[in-house]
Structures are given as structure tokens and as C-alpha cells.
Amino acid sequence: MGGVSLALGAIYVVFGLVLMQTGLGAFGIVIVLAIAWGQWYFSDSLALKSMGAKVVEPHQAPELHAMIDRLCVLADMPKPRVAVAVTDVPNAFATGRTPKHSAVCVTTGIMQRLDAEELEGVLAHELAHVANRDVTVMTVATSLGLLAGLVTRYGFYFGGGGRGRGNNNNLPFIVVFLVSIVVYFLSFLLTRSLSRYRELSADRSGAYLTGQPSKLASALMKISGDMSRIPSRDLRETGAVSAFFFAPALNRASVSAMFSTHPPLDQRVQQLSRISAELSER
After folding, report:
1. Each residue of 50-69: pLDDT tens digit?
2. Residue 125 assigned as binding residue
3. For Zn(2+), which residues are the binding ones (predicted)?
4. Total-model pTM
5. Range of 248's domain?
């Protein structure tokens, strides 16, 4: 994760220098900071709304609340809001800008398919995302790609490609346009890589929190196996928040591992097997 962050930082510096040479730097940075701040500040509400999830109180989902209460005590962290989304897609996700302003959401599909210990493993994984402030990390990481995307779409037109400009003024903006495409692609790959590392980190934290990595592995295999049988329409409806999911909502055959937000299933299960062996030795 450190290596990916350093690479993103280097690209930030290079892209910033290019933008400053053309006068687009201040404009682009202000717009991106505003969008990134909104994405970070309202992340919990936006994610829940996009899934059609409803916040539930302890009397509405006592078993679910009891699991999260126990895990929060073990992890020594504030309890997030608890939400349920009515969909057959078996999954869960966590979102929120800080541990005190966060939410954990599970679908009715996952509650129907997993036993109590498997569901607890999934919830521990999601709480690890909250404790590790992964929404903040990924918001910062994706801001560069957002800036590059904006420049690619609008910067060239407003800066030098619009009508009424002299041909001599176009060259710097053509350079920015081309650099923006390269930067967007590189930052896209790096943020996907960072996302995969964060998932492995959450698996590890969740496994140690419950002390039952085998149950987390079992939940992973159940969810991944069932995902191929979920109707395509249901998967498309959850596409907006698939990056937050415990397991990817896309069939692995439909997306290359390089572009995936989640590590391969076998890599996650192997890590959990090593943790299980370590705990057994202890």
C-alpha cells in the first residue's frame, strides 16, 4: 500500500506541474477538491441511498445489532449505523468518513445464505474498513483520477479547443489533454491495486477480530459461488457501490483481475488459511 501511495504521489506532482504550465491548475484543483469533499462527507448517505438501504434499530434487527455490538466492543470502536438493503444479491458493505460517522449495510440475500458465525466474519471485515478509514484513503487516492478525467473531458475545450482561439494557443492544451488520458489510466490502475490491498487488510483484521478465519473464508466462498446465479438485473442495480462490497458483484469472467477492486478469491482464502494455521499454533 505504501508503494502504491508513493506512485500516486509522484503522478500527482507531475500532473500538477503540467497543469500549472497551462493555467488550468487552480481551476481543476478547486473543482476536484469540492467534488472529493462532497464524496467523502456524504459517503455514508449516498451509498445507502444508492442501494435503497434502510437504517434499522435494535428492535427491528436484534441479532444483527447484537453481533455488531459485540464486535465493536472487541475492536474498541464506536458503533456505526446499521442498515439493511432488500435485495437477493448476497453482500455487505461499510461506508462513512470517520468511525463516528459510518454505516454498515447488509443485504437480505446475505442474511439468508450465511450462518451466524459466517455473517459475524463478514461484519468484522466491514468494521475493519471503518476502523482503517478506507473511505478517506480511497477518496484521496481517487481524486487525481477525477481531476485527470475532468481535464480530459472539459479542460481541452474550455482551455484551448473552443472556437475563437488561435491555433498557436492550442498546443499546450493538447499536451495537457494527452497527459490527462495517461494520468487517468495510471491512477485508475493504481487505485484499483490499492483497493485490493485494502480488502486483504480488512480480511486479515476481521479474521483476527473474530478468531475464526475459516468462517470468513467460508462466507467468501458461499457468496462468490452464489453470485454467478444472481440475475444480471440485480447485479446491475448494485453496480454503483460494488467497490464497497465484501465480495465483488461482478463475475470474474467479466472483468480482468488487473481492473478489479477486489483481490482474487483464491488469494483471499489462502491468506485466511495462513492466519488459521497461525492461530492454531498459538
Report:
1. 888 999 999 999 999 999 99
2. yes
3. 125, 129, 199
4. 0.76
5. 2-48+133-281
